[in-house]
Amino acid sequence: MTPPSATISALLACPRCDKTPMATQDNDLYCSGCKVKFPNFAGLPWLFAEPQASWAEWRARWQYALQQLKLSLDRINETLRSTDLYAATRTRLEHRVIAETAHSKDIEALLAPLGLRTDLSGISTYLALRTRLPPDQGLLTYYNNVHRDWCWGDKENAASLALVNDALAEHKPKRMLVLGAGAGRLTYDLHQYHTPDMSIGFDFNPLLVGIAARVSTGERITMREFPIAPKTASDYGIERVLQAPEPANDQLHWMIGDIHRLPFATQQFDTIVTPWLIDIVPEELGSFASRINQLLTDDGCWINFGSLSFHNTHPAAQYSQEECAAIVDASGFLPPHIATRSIPYMDSPSSRHARTEEVIAWAAHKDAHIKRTTRYEALPDWLVRGQSPVPLTQGVRTQTTTTQVHAFLLSLIDGKRSLQDIAKIAAAKQLVPAHEAEATIRNFLIKMADEGRRLGY
Ligand SMILES: C[S@@+](CC[C@H](N)C(=O)[O-])C[C@H]1O[C@@H](n2cnc3c(N)ncnc32)[C@H](O)[C@@H]1O
Question: What's the predicted TM-score (pTM) here?
Answer without folding.
Answer: 0.87
